[in-house]
Design a protein that fits this description.
Helix content: over 70%
Strand content: under 5%
Structural class: mainly alpha
Shape: elongated
Number of helices: 5
Order of helices and strands: HHHHH
Radius of gyration: 30 Å
Length: 221
């Protein structure tokens, strides 16, 4: 039984997922800091960070669940009490890392707000951008050439920000699809192992049943 239950011990798998996500988030935070220092939009990175953080929380919950299961009955999973305590400490370490990462993201958001980085356009509403009878748009009528160029630049920056946002969302969807595929493969392998185990058990029961029937037949003669 212990050997069979050990197959359902997903601690190492969950731990590796958390480690990989931690590394991905660290890289994204570094990229975001570089963009902030250059005064560039971080919209795409922000969306990717939110996606990674959401996934990190889900995987950390799975890690904690596997740890809790082993702590209840370590020997059932073929794990020593010492190893179970090590796993508990590792899960607690990742909970602390999650809090530290959230704090870094909060600080980065505050810095961005203080620096006043935004890509909103002046007069961005549709009604304000209607073409007048004189052939001028409401947003450009009272502006000189330099001001019009600056307005166009701001509008392009806003468009870039929207494209970055879409790119971030698309990247998160792709990553979610990959993780779902990995999970389905894992669950499929688990079901395959379970079916094999059931087939072996069924064969053993048939052999035992055959021996019992033979024994009963011989004893009745």
């Amino acid at each position: 039984i212990t050997e069979k239950m050990a197959k359902f011990d997903s601690f190492n798998r969950d731990l590796n997922k958390c480690k990989n996500l931690e590394s991905d988030i660290a890289d994204l935070l570094k990229d975001k800091q570089d963009l902030l220092e250059k005064g560039k939009s971080t919209t795409k990175i922000d969306h990717m960070l939110r996606g990674r953080m959401d996934t990190f929380k889900v995987e950390l919950a799975a890690l904690q669940k596997s740890v809790d299961s082993v702590l209840i009955d370590p020997f059932k999973y073929g794990v020593s009490e010492k190893e179970a305590e090590k796993r508990k400490a590792k899960a607690e370490e990742f909970h602390e890392k999650l809090q530290a990462i959230e704090a870094k993201i909060e600080i980065g958001t505050s810095m961005k707000a203080k620096e006043g980085i935004n890509y909103s356009t002046e007069g961005g509403d549709l009604e304000e951008n209607l073409l007048g009878d004189d052939g001028e748009y409401n947003t450009t009528r009272a502006k000189d050439n330099r001001q019009v160029l600056n307005l166009q630049k701001e509008m392009l920056q806003k468009q870039d920000s929207h494209f970055d946002e879409l790119a971030g969302i698309a990247h998160n969807m792709k990553e979610d699809g990959r993780l779902i595929g990995e999970e389905l493969d894992y669950q499929n392998n688990m079901l395959t192992d379970l079916n094999r185990g059931m087939d072996k058990t069924h064969m053993k029961m048939m052999r035992v049943d055959g021996k019992l029937k033979k024994l009963i037949s011989e004893s009745s003669q």
